[in-house]
């Protein structure tokens, strides 16, 4: 009888330890998402390297996070500005190299680093929810300091930036049009996919713990701000979805679901052979042509 009790206690102890280990592992994974210290990489390109004059700008969000960016005026005076937003683990230089050609088409360009990334302040990233404060601050900064340049505003967002672009456009009637590239469909799905691709964490039973920790840390359920709930609100303003057909992080099926949710006018381009964040690289000239045509027509 005593032997049975000892064995039972030992098994119970091992189960408790295993449970604590699982919780610790999940919290560690959640912290990597919310506090991407290792993802804050330095910029490796500036506009003057490609012969473009620019202004370094600094502004603050409503929660007092300092953000840094570039304002690049069009060669000819223009009242149309495109605000361009990078993805998680990236900085403004990563999208600059594939989009600065838009300046020669008569658009002012405004790039900035999201909080906790690039040169901006802050330590917490949220894959979209907190970053909505960043785009609002960017728009307010433009309107206050350069009103003559932003009579018409268009948005471009890559990955996490695509989510932010969709949600801001949906809730801000001042935005004329939006391009969302490699945007996710829902917060829950993208975290689940990220956890599996990078850490092989299965959804059940571990991901609910990760998602719970993220909700508790942010003080809000970021799933409510998912593009799937916001993209139907954009109409009658045009939305253009770009997605890699072989996106390994956000499957192309999610782009198709977003497209179905969107109301006309809308368009979608699934880039053959492109993985996550590789549409510009794979699309080449056609990528630039489609971006140019969209903004020329709608902005």
Concise synopsis of the structure shown:
By secondary structure, the chain is an alpha/beta fold. The protein has helices spanning 2-34, 92-99, 131-145, 160-171, 187-199, 207-218, 227-230, 252-261, 279-298; strands at residues 55-60, 66-72, 80-85, 108-112, 152-158, 175-181, 239-244, 266-271.
Topology at a glance:
Blueprint (H helix, E strand, L loop, with lengths): L1 H33 L20 E6 L5 E7 L7 E6 L6 H8 L8 E5 L18 H15 L6 E7 L1 H12 L3 E7 L5 H13 L7 H12 L8 H4 L8 E6 L7 H10 L4 E6 L7 H20 L1
Helix pairs in contact: 1-6, 3-4
Rg for CA atoms: 21 Å
Q: Tell me the CATH architecture.
A: 3-Layer(aba) Sandwich
| Residue share in β-strands | 15-25%
Helix percentage range: 40-55%
Can you count the beta strands? 8
Average pLDDT across residues?
A: 86
Largest sheet: 8 strands, mixed
Give a written overview of the molecule.
- There is one protein chain.
- This protein has 299 residues and is α/β, with parallel strands linked by helices.
- The protein has a single domain, classed as Alpha/Beta hydrolase fold, catalytic domain (Rossmann fold, 3-Layer(aba) Sandwich).
- Helices cover 42% and strands 17% of the residues.
- The protein has nine helices and eight strands.
- An eight-stranded mixed β-sheet has the order 1-2-4-3-5-6-7-8, sandwiched between helices.
- Strand 1 and strand 2 form a beta hairpin.
- The chain is globular and about 85 Å long.
- The model is unreliable at 10-26 (pLDDT under 50).
Considering the chains and any ligands shown, give keywords for the structure.
single chain; 299 residues; alpha/beta; Rossmann fold; eight-stranded mixed β-sheet; 9 helices; 8 strands
């Amino acid at each position: 009888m005593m032997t049975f009790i000892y064995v039972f206690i030992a098994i119970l102890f091992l189960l408790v330890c295993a449970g604590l280990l699982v919780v610790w592992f999940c919290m560690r994974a959640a912290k990597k998402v919310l506090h991407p210290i290792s993802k804050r990489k330095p910029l490796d390109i500036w506009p003057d390297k490609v012969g473009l004059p620019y202004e370094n700008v600094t502004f603050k969000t409503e929660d007092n996070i300092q953000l840094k960016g570039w304002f690049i005026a069009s060669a000819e005076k223009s009242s149309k500005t495109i605000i361009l937003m990078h993805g998680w683990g990236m900085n403004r230089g990563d999208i600059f190299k594939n989009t600065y050609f838009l300046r020669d088409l008569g658009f002012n360009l405004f790039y900035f680093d999201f909080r906790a990334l690039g040169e901006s302040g802050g330590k917490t990233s949220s894959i979209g929810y907190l970053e909505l404060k960043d785009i609002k601050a960017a728009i307010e900064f433009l309107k206050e300091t350069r009103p003559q340049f932003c009579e018409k505003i268009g948005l471009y967002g890559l990955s996490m930036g695509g989510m932010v672009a969709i949600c801001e456009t949906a809730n801000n009637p001042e935005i004329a049009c939006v391009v969302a590239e490699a945007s996710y469909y829902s917060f829950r799905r993208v975290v689940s996919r990220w956890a599996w691709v990078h850490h092989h964490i299965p959804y059940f039973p571990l991901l609910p713990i990760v998602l719970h920790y993220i909700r508790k840390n942010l003080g809000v359920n970021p799933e409510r701000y998912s593009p799937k709930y916001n993209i139907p609100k954009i109409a009658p303003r045009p939305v253009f979805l770009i997605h890699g057909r072989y996106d390994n992080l956000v499957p192309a099926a999610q782009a198709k679901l977003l497209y179905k949710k969107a109301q006309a006018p809308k368009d979608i381009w699934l880039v053959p052979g492109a993985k996550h964040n590789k549409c510009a690289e794979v699309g080449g000239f056609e990528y630039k042509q489609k971006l140019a045509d969209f903004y020329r027509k709608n902005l």
